[in-house]
Amino acid sequence: MTETTTGRLRVDGAELYYEVRGRGPLLLLIPGGTGGAASFEEIVDDLAADRTVVTYDPRGLSNSPLDDPAAPQRVEQHAEDALGLIDLLSPGEPVSVAGCSSGAIVAMHLLTAHPGRIARVVAHEPPLAEVLPDAAEHRVMLARVREAFDREGPMAAATVLAAGLRRPGESAGARPAAELSPRAAARVERSMADAPYFIGRVIPSFMAHVPDVDRLRALSDRLVLAAGADSHGELPYRPAALLAERFGTELVHFPGGHTGLSTHPAEFGKLLREVLDAR
């Protein structure tokens, strides 16, 4: 196991917990969902064999407390948090960034806001509903998520959200749930305490985020759009596929579905290394 150094970074309105492994060019991994730095625990040692790998808990999750627990969450602020870690750990040198789901949204905004600091971004299934032709339908869905959260709590909101992310016409239970290793299952269990914050505050804001598509197109030679091989047609798959088509770039298919990092960690990590090493 690679030696791990931990640290804390004070940012506007929060304190970030981060972990550093390896030596060499910096790779910042931005997690999605509630997993935080632990999301990458099954792939990080291999990636750190020839690079410095930084993982962290985004503001409000796990070990990165907010000054104001009720503060609104914005993609732009989360991207500035990521930039703070880059400036601290790789001053002056462009870095690679990989993000999954909500973390992919942050990574893409980081590229458009600070292109001079970013060498390459791998964005796996960013649920950018606003780029889709049926964005209005997804706005209605997000409003229902918020209503369910306010009326019945996070579990009811998660049910509404899960239905909105499925393929059109697909019912709950139409496909078997992806199997998790005991390690991944334990990680999910540990992160459940952060579900109310993530579902109630992060998801509605992040999925309503409007990216600068023209800016992304201009920087598309540094952007690798990725999706799960098993999630074709699902909402998080579609923005990556649509943007790759618009930009004339390849959509890279990673093993598994939206949570392929957890269900197929070895294969996911191997392909991520190949994509990062490609020039």
Automatic annotation (TrEMBL):
InterPro entries: AB_hydrolase, AB_hydrolase_1, AB_hydrolase_fold. Keywords: Hydrolase. It comes from the Bacteria. Residues 25-141 form the AB hydrolase-1 domain. One of its GO terms (molecular function) is hydrolase activity. This is Alpha/beta fold hydrolase. It comes from Streptosporangium jomthongense.
